């Protein structure tokens, strides 16, 4: 899958600008995802992509619309050097794959062919493999159930 | 093992004697907050999960503040959805136009946050209530839905940074300058996943509005929460607002901090954050000539009565510069009323400012003061990301109410000392 690479501190205001928060359906949000940062995003993400960010990806507002917009756009995973904490938990809660790996973030260039499989990020362009740090069991359970609410339902 | 104040509050709500950094806990929350932007997403998730009645209709606060009074049809539909849910569920703390305020100014004012409490809100600035010695933190809409249904949330126990405050603030220096200075020092991810705990003799010299402002922007350093100790200033604020028992919580002696910083409040100078990151802190003498088009004084960061008093002190008998639009937004109905009663609104009107009903409006580029391409604003808000207040090619300088008011008169980013 194509890697779309951005820098540090990609904030939720550029992932989905607040002027569109009068809507919340993922399909509506998708139409404006990343538009203040990268006008070519809809073209790049077509057919699926992996977004690669630097440090502090998803900083700023708590809007869950941000991971929802990325997921609806066809982003299969976000790989970043580090994640802002609310974005991190939102992504887990809605079932968007995230991988925190400064090595992968540094070693992937825009346009590389990348895949996320078996707990690792593979850069097929360079041949490098970056192991993803394992999640704690509780978070694995949330992801396994398909999100937080599904996990809570399963608990009863 | 000794715990930080934040860890002690989490442990108490998780039913544990002891927690340590990195541990995942499920904890009971005292209050769950949502607004008109984040609640609709939470309600969709809530319904999809098939949840019925909320865990406690008295422990949920829904505040219609972001796009209110409704800016367009879609915003109106979103508020309507939340309003119907609030009615159907008998939500006690539902605040709509006419009694609402910017949520993080409103909740403390209504007595909904107290020492030792654990509060989650689907809004990143929920960290504000740390000023009242609560552990409060922003979450997303799914967490909000889970919180409303079950009264619990999951947390990774944070490590912490300690900021020991000494001295007292100089003339025209406020909590805003302190927190911008700190974010500039540690960076926008300098406290990522961590607590920021404020302590030291300087705390006593900070009023509650300054503490609320400092705690409010902990998220701008990436922090999970910011927290102050409870003292006589806190108790004086809580008196008449909170009638339930609370638990004042201090860090244990010997609690571990990853980093220790001492901030001499008397050495902090008026500070702004230049575009496009809250961490781009510069003192005013370091700013090149920057003409401005708009000033916004308000928000969950600086829309409180003491903020308006300072702005009025600067604007009294003066006029906003020609070609500068000044929008002043008292953060709650009560603050609005106080500002009228104290004559502040008259001063603002005489100075050529627009005074608005409470709303988050322009802070997030929603309405009530959007910037055109190439325009520049000075705002007492909390974020200056690309496109935050309007066009992606507009600029926002974050500043204190004193600096914002002075800039309004000067027509450029400037200090009250220049007037």
Provide key terms for this protein.
heterodimer, A: 156 residues, alpha/beta, Aconitase, domain 4, four-stranded parallel β-sheet, three-stranded antiparallel β-sheet, B: 419 residues, Aconitase, domain 3, 13 helices, 29% helix, globular
Concise synopsis of the structure shown:
Chain A has 156 residues and is an alpha/beta fold.
- Per CATH, the class of the largest domain in chain B reads Alpha Beta
Largest sheet of chain A: 4 strands, parallel
Task: Count structural domains of chain A.
Answer: 1
- Order of strands, widest sheet of chain A: 1-2-3-4
Q: Would you write up a description of this structure?
A:
The complex is a heterodimer of chains A (156) and B (419). In chain A, 36% of the residues lie in helices and 19% in strands. Chain A has helices spanning 12-15, 26-30, 41-45, 65-73, 85-94, 102-107, 137-145, 148-155, and strands spanning 2-5, 49-53, 75-80, 97-100, 114-117, 120-123, 129-131. The model of chain A has no long low-confidence stretch (mean pLDDT 95). In chain B, helix 10 crosses helix 12 and helix 10 runs parallel beside helix 13. Chain B has 419 residues and is an alpha/beta fold. Helix content of chain B is 29%, strand content 18%. Chain B is globular. Chain B has helices at 5-14, 39-48, 73-89, 103-109, 141-150, 175-186, 208-216, 232-238, 299-302, 305-315, 333-341, 344-350, 401-410, and strands at 24-28, 31-35, 60-63, 93-95, 118-121, 135-138, 152-156, 160-166, 195-199, 225-227, 259-264, 271-273, 281-283, 294-297, 325-328, 354-355, 376-379, 395-398.
């Amino acid at each position: 899958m194509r890697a779309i690479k951005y820098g540090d501190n990609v904030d939720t205001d550029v992932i989905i600008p607040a002027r569109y928060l009068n809507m919340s359906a993922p399909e509506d949000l998708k139409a404006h995802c990343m538009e203040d940062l990268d006008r070519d995003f809809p073209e790049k993400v077509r057919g699926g992509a992996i977004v690669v960010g630097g440090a502090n990806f998803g900083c700023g507002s708590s809007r869950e619309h941000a991971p929802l917009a990325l997921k609806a756009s066809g982003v299969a995973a976000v790989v970043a050097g580090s994640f802002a904490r609310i974005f991190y938990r939102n992504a887990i809660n809605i079932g968007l794959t995230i991988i925190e790996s400064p090595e992968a973030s540094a070693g992937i260039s825009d346009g590389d062919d990348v895949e996320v499989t078996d707990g690792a990020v593979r850069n097929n362009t360079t041949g490098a493999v970056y192991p993803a740090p394992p999640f704690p069991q509780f978070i694995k359970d949330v992801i396994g159930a398909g999100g937080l609410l599904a996990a809570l339902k399963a608990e009863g | 093992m000794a715990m930080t104040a934040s860890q002690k509050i989490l442990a108490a709500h998780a039913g544990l004697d002891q927690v340590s950094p990195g541990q995942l806990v499920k904890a009971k929350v005292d209050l769950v907050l949502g607004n008109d932007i984040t609640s609709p997403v939470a309600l969709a998730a809530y319904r999809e999960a098939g949840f019925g009645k909320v865990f406690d209709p008295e422990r949920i606060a829904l505040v219609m503040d972001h796009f209110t009074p409704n800016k367009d049809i879609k915003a109106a539909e979103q508020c309507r959805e939340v309003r119907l849910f609030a009615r159907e569920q008998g939500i006690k703390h539902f605040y709509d136009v006419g009694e609402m305020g910017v949520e993080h100014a409103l909740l403390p004012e209504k007595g909904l946050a107290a020492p030792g409490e654990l509060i989650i809100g689907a809004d990143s600035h929920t960290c504000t209530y740390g000023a009242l010695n609560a552990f409060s933190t922003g979450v997303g809409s799914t967490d909000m839905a889970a919180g409303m249904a079950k009264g619990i949330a999951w947390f990774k126990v944070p490590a912490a940074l300690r900021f020991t405050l000494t001295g007292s603030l100089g003339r025209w220096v406020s909590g805003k300058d302190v927190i911008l200075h700190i974010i500039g020092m540690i960076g926008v991810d300098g406290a990522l996943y961590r607590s920021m705990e404020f302590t030291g003799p300087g705390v006593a010299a900070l009023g509650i509005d300054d503490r609320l402002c400092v705690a409010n922007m902990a998220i701008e350093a990436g922090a999970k929460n910011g927290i102050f100790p409870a003292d006589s200033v806190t108790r004086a604020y809580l008196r008449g607002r909170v009638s339930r028992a609370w638990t004042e919580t201090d860090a244990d002696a010997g609690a571990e901090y990853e980093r220790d910083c001492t901030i001499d409040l008397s050495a902090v100078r008026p500070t702004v954050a230049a575009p496009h990151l809250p961490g781009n802190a510069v003192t005013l003498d370091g700013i090149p000539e920057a003409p401005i088009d708009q000033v916004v004084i308000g928000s969950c960061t600086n829309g409180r009565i003491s903020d308006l008093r300072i702005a009025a002190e600067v604007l009294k008998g003066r006029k906003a510069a020609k070609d500068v639009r000044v929008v002043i937004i008292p953060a709650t109905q009560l603050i609005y009323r106080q500002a009228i009663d104290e004559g502040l609104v008259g001063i603002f009107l005489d100075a050529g400012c627009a005074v608005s009903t409470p709303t988050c409006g322009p802070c997030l580029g929603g309405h009530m003061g959007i910037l055109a391409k190439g325009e520049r604003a000075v705002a007492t808000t909390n974020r200056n990301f690309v496109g935050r207040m309007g066009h992606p090619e507009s600029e926002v300088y974050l500043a204190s109410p004193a600096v914002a008011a002075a800039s309004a008169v000067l027509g450029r980013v400037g200090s009250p000392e220049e007037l």
